[in-house]
Amino acid sequence: MEEVQKSIAHQIGGIQNDALRFGLQGVKSDILGSHPLQSSQESANRINEAMKKQCLVNLYGTAFPLKMDLDRQILSRFQRPPGVIPSSMLGLDAYTGRLDDFGFEDYLNDPRESETLRPLDLHHGMEVLLGLSKGPVCPSFM
């Protein structure tokens, strides 16, 4: 006689629209970016980066940009566990040249220090990093 495996198909925390963990979300925030110029700035950054890669290919050959991409991937993996102190990604910022950029967080406030930021749930953040749960590692603004 064959044994039949009975299991209930489910996902642990698979629903990202969990109102108890992530709060109520609006449809407008899912469709639109945070600012109208954000999409144009991102596309300009992508075009600028593609031009830099093409210049590196022309100067040093095809292996150099590939090595730079591998280094960028390695440096983007080094992060602190979710908690009170966020990852600064200093090595990646130094490698990509973002230390020289003067962003809005330099003359305004850091968004993580905002009054509307929801407190971080350390346990949920570790569950997401270990693959036990789905959803954002830390909740965004209210």
UniProtKB/TrEMBL annotation:
Domain of life where this protein originates: Eukaryota
Q: Would you tell me the protein name for this molecule?
A: Proteasome maturation factor UMP1
Pfam families on file: UMP1
Into which family does the record put it?
Belongs to the POMP/UMP1 family.
Keyword Chaperone among UniProt keywords: yes
Q: Keyword annotations for this protein?
A: Chaperone
InterPro entries on file:
Ump1
